[in-house]
Amino acid sequence: MGGRGSRSQVPRHPPEQDREGGGAVHDLIVIGAGPGGYEAAAHAGELGK
Fold first, then answer.
1. Predicted structure pTM score
2. C or N: which end of the chain has fewer Cβ atoms within 10 Å?
C-alpha cells in the first residue's frame, strides 16, 4: 500500500545554489514537535556544525 519509501534519495547541490546570496541553507526535520520542539531541533542542528 504505497506510502513513502524510507530509502528515497535527497537531491544534493552546491550550497551557492540554495539562495541568491549564496549563504548556506540547512534542512531541518522536526519529529514530534510539541512545545519548544522546533527550537530544540534547531539547537540540535547547531550542535552538529
1. 0.30
2. N
